[in-house]
Amino acid sequence: LTQLGKRFVAADMDARKDIWKAQLLELRLFRVVKDLIELHEGELNKDELLHELAVRLPMENLELTFGTLVAWGRFGELFAYREDRGVLTPE
Description:
Shape: globular
Mean pLDDT: 96
Structural class: mainly alpha
Radius of gyration: 14 Å
Oligomer: single chain
């Protein structure tokens, strides 16, 4: 494991979430989602995000990508997905 991986494994859950969040924000796609949520005044509609994903990642399975993005973002407490309303919001 890398030093970061060792730190992650040894950390408690809160520290793991902080490490995960920091690493997510190294990825452009997660920074874009975070910025879009802010741009849309704290609520990004799922359909708007799916459109953005289709433009940026035209060869990818949109629903699978969306699911992964939401799961990873939730774990890192980067954003929340309000399934009942179909929107992503800041955590």
